[in-house]
Amino acid sequence: MRIRDTDKEQLVKFKAIEQIVQDGFQGFSMNKLAKACNISVATLYIYYKDKDDLIKKLGAEIGHNFFTNTMKDFSPEMPFAEGLWIQWKNRSAFAMEFPMEVACFEVIKHSPHAESIFAESTHMQDFKESMKQFVINARNNKELIPLSLEVFWSVAYGPLYILLNFHREGKSMGGIPFKLTNEIVKEAFDAVIKSLTP
Amino acid sequence: MDTNSQLFIFKTDIAELCANCEVYKALNKHAGVQEWSIDTDDVDRVLRVESATLSALEIISIINSLGHDCQELN
Does B42 sit within 8 Å of A30, measured CB to CB? Predict the structure, then answer.
């Protein structure tokens, strides 16, 4: 009888994330993963049916954590600036705390599995619904200028993600050393709010 | 997973699988097999079988009888 070992399972997840980030979706294999974890291929197959199964489960788990963390202290009924600030805080906290998971999630999001992962995730559906309602409320309350969806998203969140990228790389344009601070986040946020409010 | 069932893991040479393949049909209709899958993308073509009644040897003999190699992975 093969028994699951929780510590081993955590190691497998950790190494899988590392390999997916380093080698991409195509370069990742069950055999390489087993070697990196110092476990037999058989042990790996106790946890997962195949590479696709592993990636789907990993994606679902990271997605679940991301959506749960993003919704912390947030409600779509909040005034626009307050709600968006909480989104910024939650998203940057998650990216700072779990940089590898975020990078891995990006790879999975661009893989053929993204659709099935998101379709099966009720958290993802709730998240999307909340974010949509938040924007509708902001429009109704005249706290937000009319914008097409993609432009809204780029302006509302783009600056944050670019700053987080700089932070992850430790440098900004032309290799200038960079570290993200609360002051910088606030400065960017104020500029965003200024451009989005009537 | 059923509490009585065991999970067996094998290395095989089953490179392709389709609904018409003998292996597919044999495992699907076998009453002792609760669930099974083969990772045909992996170099070891890993076969997983969940069963409460079959032994590893019995599973190996089913796969061998269909003309495929099959060794239990430990």
Answer: yes
